[in-house]
Amino acid sequence: MTGRLNPAGHPSWWRHAVIYQIYIRSFADANGDGIGDLAGIESRLGYLSDLGVDAVWITPFYPSPQADGGYDVADYRAVDPVFGSLDEFDALMAAAQGRGIKVIVDLVPNHTSSAHPWFRSALAAAPGSSERARYIFRSGRGPGGAEPPNNWVSVFGGSAWTPVPSPRGQPQQWYLHLFAPEQPDLDWTNPEVRREFESILRFWLDRGVDGFRIDVAHGLVKDPAMPDLDERYPSRGPAPTGHPYWDQDEIHDVYRSWRAVLDEYGGNRMFVAEAWVASTQQLARYVRPDELHTAFNFDFLRAAWDADELRAAIDSSFESMAAVGAAPTWVLSNHDVVRHVSRYGGGEQGERRARAAVLLMLALPGGAYVYQGDELGLPEVADLPDEVLQDPTFLRTGGASRGRDGCRVPIPWSGDKPSYGFGPGAASWLPQPPQWRELSVTRQSERSASMLHLYRGALEARRRHAGFRSESLQWIDAEPGMLAFRRSERLTCLVNASELTLPVPNEVRGAEVILASIPLRDLERLPPACAVWLATAGGGADG
Ligand code: GLC
Ligand code: CA
C-alpha cells in the first residue's frame, strides 16, 4: 500500500483534482435571510470533506447590486454584507484549507458593476476623459449619434450599447456591455485597467487563495475597429475565429502577465478559464505553458448522451491539451446551463444517464468539476413562476428565454418542509419544489442506492485506486454505443451510452468491479445507460 492519492497535496494538484462549484447564493444560508453565505459554506465543510472533493470554487461574493447574481462587481477587494465579511472569508478559507480543501475564487475582469466607483466617475466625467477611458464609450451613429455605435448584441438579449446623457450639442455617447447594462465592459487596452487587475490578483493571493476562476476569459479584448457583426459571427454560441469581440489574439498578453504574477506566489496555485470558444484548439491557446493552467471543457458538457459525440469531445480535448502540455478538465453542469439530469432526458432516464456520466467523467484523466447539487441528482426546475425569476436574460429577452434560475435553486439539505435545511427557516430566494424533500442530503444519506452515495463512492475510489494516477487513456475496441478505455493496466472504464444491452469486450470479462452506476447482474453484458469501473490485471487498490 502506498497510501491514499491526495491530489490536493500534489504540486500540480489541478491536473487531477475534483473541484466543487459553490454557487454561494444557493448553497447554505447561515443567518436565515434566504440567501446563502460564507458562514453557511463553513458550516457545511464537513459535508464537502466527506464527499471527498479536493477544492471548492466559490462564485462571486463581492459587494454587488446583484444585477447578474454577483457577476456585477462593485468592489473587488471586499465581501458583500449579504454574504458575510472579509474576516469570515479568511476564517472559511483557513477552515477549508485545514481540512485539505483548496479554495478558488471567481475573478470578473471583463466588466465591472455600473455601481463600481470607476463607472460612476466615468459617467460624471466628460467624453474623452481618463475616467471614461477605463470603459468603452463611443459616439453613436447617425444624426446626433442617436443610433448605437454598431450592431453588437448583449449575451442577455438586446443591444450591447446603452446611451448616456451627453452635453448639449455633442453627439450621443454610448457604453458597451456584452452582458447586462449594469455590467459595463472595461477597456483592456488601457494600462490602468491591467494594473488594477494585477493588484486585485495580489490582494487575494496575499490572503492565501489557491486559484482563480476567470469569468468570460475570452471576452476581454475587442477588435479596435469595432466592425458590425455579420452572418459569419452569430451573437450566441461558441465564437468562430475572427469574431470582433470573442477570443481575440491580444487577450493572451493579459494571461501571460497574470501567470507571471501567480508564479511569484509559488507554483501551487492555479487559474481556470471560462472561455466559450470555437474549438478545443482555440481553447488550448489559453493554457499554453506561460498562460493559464486549465480551462473548462464545454465540448464535453455540450455533448449529447451519445457514445460518438462523447468520444469525439474526449479525443479532441486530449489531443489539444496534450499539444500544449496542459491537463484536460471535465464538467457536466454549472450555474449557467440546464442541469444535466434534465439535459439527458429528465426523470428516471435522465438520472440513470447522469449516474453513468459521472463515472465516465471521473474515470477520465484530468481535473473534474462538480456543480453543487449534481451529487444529489437535482434536475432543472423548469416551472419557476415568472415573478421569482431574477436572471437578466428573462427580462431582456422579453421572456423568450427563461434564463438560468432553474439550475440555481437552493440546495435541499434535510427536513420535511422548505427550505429543507438550506437555512434555519422557510426562506430561500428561489422556491424549492416539494419533490426535493426526497432528494435532500439527509434522505440520500439513508439510501445506499442514492446519487449521493454514488458520488461519495466514486470520489473515494478515485483517490484510493492506483489506476487513477496515470494521465493516459487507451481506447478498447467495443460495440458501437459503448465507450471502453483503460487507465493504465489496472483500471478499465466501460460506459454503455446506447439504448441497447451490449456485450462487454472479451478482454475485461472476469475483472473485478470497483464501482457500477447501477447494480449489475453479471459482467457479460451491460444494460443501457450504465457505467462500470473495473480493476484489471490484478490492479485493485493501492499498489
Ligand atoms: C459568466 C458567468 C455567468 C455570468 C457572465 C457574465 O458566463 O458564468 O453567470 O452571467 O459570465 O459575467
Ligand atoms: Ca444568508
Layout of secondary structure:
Layout: E1 18-22, H1 38-43, H2 45-51, E2 55-58, H3 86-98, E3 102-107, H4 117-124, E4 137-139, E5 161-164, E6 173-176, H5 191-207, E7 211-214, H6 251-264, E8 270-273, H7 280-284, E9 294-295, H8 298-302, H9 307-324, E10 329-331, H10 340-343, H11 347-363, E11 367-371, H12 392-396, H13 441-446, H14 451-464, E12 474-475, E13 482-487, E14 491-496, E15 502-503, E16 512-516, E17 525-526, E18 530-535
Parallel strand pairs: 1-2, 1-11, 2-3, 3-7, 7-8, 8-9, 10-11
Antiparallel strand pairs: 4-6, 5-6, 12-13, 13-14, 14-18, 15-17, 16-18
Residues 29-31, 33, 35, 37 line the site of calcium ion.
Rg, rounded, reads 24 Å
Distance between the termini: 5 Å
Mean pLDDT: 95
Low-pLDDT residue spans: 1-5, 539-543
Proportion of β residues? 5-15%
Largest sheet: 8 strands, parallel
Under CATH at level 1, the class of the domain at 469-535 stands as: Mainly Beta
What spatial order of strands do you see in the largest sheet? 9-8-7-3-2-1-11-10
What is the CATH superfamily label of the domain at 469-535?
Golgi alpha-mannosidase II
Shape: globular
* Structural class by secondary-structure content: alpha/beta
